[in-house]
Design goal:
Elements (H helix, E strand, L loop, with lengths): L15 E5 L18 E5 L3 E6 L3 H22 L7 E6 L7 E4 L5 E5 L14 H17 L3 H10 L13 H11 L13 H13 L4 H6 L8 H17 L3 H9 L13 H4 L3 H25 L6 E2 L6 E7 L5 E6 L6 E5 L6 E6 L5 E4 L5 E9 L3 E10 L8 E4 L6 E6 L6 E6 L5 E6 L8 E4 L6 E7 L5 E8 L2 E8 L5 E7 L3 E6 L5 E5 L6 E6 L2 E4 L7 E7 L4 E8 L2 E8 L8 E4 L25 E2 L3 H4 L5 E7 L2 E11 L5 E10 L4 E10 L3 E16 L4 E21 L3 E18 L4 E2 L2 E2 L3 E6 L1
Parallel strand pairs: 3-4, 4-6
Antiparallel strand pairs: 1-39, 2-3, 2-32, 5-6, 7-30, 8-9, 9-10, 10-11, 12-13, 13-14, 14-15, 16-17, 17-18, 18-19, 20-21, 21-22, 22-23, 24-25, 25-26, 26-27, 27-31, 28-29, 29-30, 33-34, 34-35, 35-36, 36-37, 37-38, 38-39, 39-42, 40-41
Length: 753
């Protein structure tokens, strides 16, 4: 999501500002984009695609997918936006996301880095999934008819003329997430193992109420709007017809009064929302119980808990001696790298970390951390850090190993400090590199990123000679062995089940999380066979490897939280499930969108021009009357697609005295800010019977300029500002006004500067 309107920062000259935040609350979407890069624009029939010069190849793919998604959703929702949609490709972000907004114009942002884990990792192509999702938002939120459409025609794109924006988030995100299932091939999140596991967990702890969803408070699960919303629209479609969602959207698109949620289902179902919700929950309960009966019949095999369930756990690593390291987020303070010593449930915080961090443990206790950080003040890229017990004055310390390196996953190669890492680039292409132990030595590329594979995770054997890779290609997931000396690759196994959290045991067996059978569990590959090691009723969400005595470190989904556990498998003689491995490539890659008969061609690329998107798209009249004065005017605002420029203009004209008043504000690159305003206040009037006439009034003019040098980090921001301000106040006596029989003589005097 994005914020609407303009944000202005007015600070005094030479003031040091310090702003603190946590996680992704600090860098806003606009800060993910470096305006100093060479930006280009190309057009299709319905889109303007803005991309960096380095990502022009991916821009062609984005344009083709966008046109296919646009054709599908405009047909489904019976609505076509009037103007072209701006799509901005975010190449400088090592995260997987997107956003869409209809104000001040239809704009979508696409993070081209593909997901490496979580609910977004599936067989579907990432760009198809994210573009379909965000363009569904565009078509849905833009739609209006009846009174909202009339007012939009008169006043432009004011927020209250977008009825579909003004409703609970779970309805907006639910409709869009459900749209991913239109292809009917179960590639969408609605049918994913992650969503199904979360719904089993919700069934066990008790479903959220309609009031809780409408309030959109700080309630687990964090993706509740997507989760519950998608299942709700699936229920409507299954119960009331394939066009049920479109019919509900049509009704809401006619509403001028916002948040009429209670009646939004009546035209479709002849019931109000609370009754429909009860029916939905009853149906959902039956569906989950029927689908999970076989799974729940067998007891869980997950070991013992190590601590209380946590808000979030981003990375886990098991030491040879049985100590467990984890990046723990309690939802209140900053995430922390935490150690749980064997035999003790007491957490030992070691150092702060960032959300999304992943860790790898060396035999001497050194922790390798791959985590996101702000690069060059704008972009968010993964870098490598090393924590050691003797790295600080007290309790160890962390040292940064790379700067803007984009190393999204990494593993120690040996005690000398060399690292094998997966590196991302500006087209979302991943390669594998060997980073030397000594700073300054050249980095060696082991696998170039030009073979159509997306690398997900990497692990290294204890002798440092072999690595294992997880890769995704054409909708299938590959387990690959990599010889770190020769660079030779061997595909060990291929199937359609998403896999994450790769580790190599002391005997060179490869362990990982896989969704085989529709449930995320830990599996072991050895001797060309796959063996399941855990049985979860919900899901194994993180896996940190195995200790010397055969104990696994893992997390599971429990009551919406992450439960840290340890499971000893050394004495387990009965395998839960075994399968033969197959290195054969799956022949037919899946499609989330209908294929296009002919790929959409982009027109000739040109340098980015902010003007087309800067033009005002809405206005609102301003009127004021006080003490014999009357002012009329209008307000407009706007920004460009890359958010380099923002402005707000509110000109006013005072008709009795002929004064030009109002305000103007402008921001450039979120670093330089300018504002000017002029106002009038009446000091003295005379009564002429039915009217008041101003005799004397004050006129004040203010102007400000501020420029900031910003030092932005994930967890905090500091800015040094320099600027100037001017304020002028004048007194004006109106000419020709009779007061007590005396006609005034007009004059203007300066009172203050």
């Amino acid at each position: 999501m994005t914020t609407f309107g303009a944000r202005w920062c007015l600070v005094a000259c030479c003031t040091l500002l310090a702003l603190a935040g946590l996680g992704w609350a600090s860098p806003a979407p606009a800060q993910f984009l470096d305006p100093g890069r060479n930006w280009r624009t190309a057009e299709t029939p319905n889109f303007r695609i803005h991309s960096e010069d380095e990502a022009h190849v991916t821009a062609r793919r984005v344009g083709d997918i966008a046109e296919r998604a646009f054709a599908l959703m405009t047909r489904e929702l019976d609505w076509t936006p009037r103007a072209k949609v701006d799509v901005v490709m975010y190449s400088g972000v090592d995260l997987s996301n997107g956003f869409a907004t209809p104000i001040p114009f239809n704009l979508s942002g696409i993070f081209i880095t593909a997901p490496r884990d979580g609910e977004l990792l599936d067989r579907a192509e990432w760009l198809e999934l994210v573009i379909l999702h965000e363009l569904t938002h565009i078509v849905h939120l833009d739609k209006a008819s009846s009174a909202p459409a009339v007012f939009r025609y008169l006043f432009g794109r004011n927020i209250w003329t977008f009825p579909n924006v003004l409703q609970p988030t779970w309805l907006v995100e639910g409709l869009t997430t459900h749209s991913e299932s239109r292809a009917g091939n179960r590639l969408d999140r609605l049918h994913s193992p992650a969503f199904e596991a979360q719904m089993r967990d919700e069934r066990r702890r008790g479903f959220l109420t309609l009031a809780q969803l409408n309030a959109n408070g700080r309630t687990l699960p964090l993706n509740r709007n997507y989760l519950y919303g998608a299942y709700f629209f699936e229920y409507l479609t299954r119960t009331y017809g394939r066009d049920a969602a479109a019919r509900m959207v049509m009704w809401y698109s006619r509403q001028l009064l916002p948040f009429r949620v209670h009646n939004s289902t009546y035209e479709l179902t002849k019931q109000q929302m609370d009754a429909v919700w009860r029916d939905f929950i009853n149906d959902l309960t039956q569906q989950i119980d029927a689908h999970s009966a076989t799974l729940l019949a067998a007891p869980e095999r997950l070991g013992e808990t190590l601590a209380q369930p946590q808000w979030s756990i981003d990375g886990v690593a098991m030491a040879a001696n049985g100590d467990v390291y984890a990046v723990v987020d309690d939802g209140i303070g900053a995430p922390a790298l935490t150690r749980y010593r064997r035999g003790s449930n007491r957490p030992e915080p070691l150092t702060t970390a960032h959300r999304g961090a992943r860790i790898n443990l060396r035999s001497d206790g050194a922790v390798l951390i791959a985590q996101p950080e702000v690069c060059s003040g704008y972009e968010v890229l993964y870098d490598l850090y090393r924590w050691t017990a003797d790295g600080g004055l007290i309790g160890g310390g962390t040292k940064r190993m790379t700067h803007c390196g984009r190393y999204i996953r990494a593993a120690w190669q040996g005690k000398d400090g060399s690292v094998v890492a997966i590196r991302n680039d500006r087209n979302g292409v991943t390669s594998v590199a060997l980073l030397p132990a000594r700073p300054g030595d050249p980095t060696r590329t082991l696998i170039a990123g030009n073979d159509g594979r997306q690398r997900l995770d990497i692990a290294v054997s204890q002798d440092g000679r072999t690595a294992a890779l997880l890769a995704k290609r054409a909708g299938s997931f590959e387990l690959v062995r990599l010889d770190l000396v020769s660079g030779a690759q061997t595909i060990l196994h291929t199937d359609s089940d998403p896999k994450t959290d790769l580790h190599m045991a002391a005997d060179s067996a490869i362990l990982f999380i896989a969704t085989a059978g529709g449930v995320p569990n830990i599996w072991r590959f050895a001797d060309a066979r796959l063996t399941r090691l855990t049985h979860a009723h919900t899901a194994v969400t993180q896996f940190g490897g195995m200790s010397a005595d055969g104990t696994l470190g893992l997390t599971t989904l429990e009551t919406g939280r992450q439960q840290l556990r340890s499971l000893n498998i050394a004495g387990s003689s009965v395998a839960l499930e075994t399968r033969a491995a197959s290195p054969q490539q799956i022949s037919s890659p899946p499609n989330l969108l209908p294929p296009s008969p002919t790929p959409v061609a982009l027109d000739a690329e040109r340098g980015y021009n902010p003007l087309p998107s800067l033009l005002p798209r809405s206005w609102w009249p301003l009127f004021g009357s006080e003490s014999g004065t009357t002012s009329i005017g209008a307000t407009i605002f706007g920004s460009d697609a890359l958010d380099m420029h923002r402005y707000l203009l509110s000109p006013l004209y005072e008709v009795t005295q002929g004064e030009v008043l109002g305000a103007a504000e402008y921001a450039y690159r979120n670093r330089h800010f300018f504002s000017v305003d002029r106002e009038l206040n009446v000091r003295r009037t005379t009564d002429t019977g039915s009217n008041e006439d101003p005799v004397e009034y004050g006129r004040r003019t203010n102007a400000q300029w501020v420029s900031l040098a910003r030092a932005v980090r994930i967890e905090r921001e500091a800015a040094l500002g320099v600027g100037a301000a001017m304020s002028r106040r004048e007194g004006v006596i109106v000419d020709g006004v009779v007061v007590n029989g005396v006609r005034s003589t007009g004059s203007t005097r300066r009172e203050e500067d």
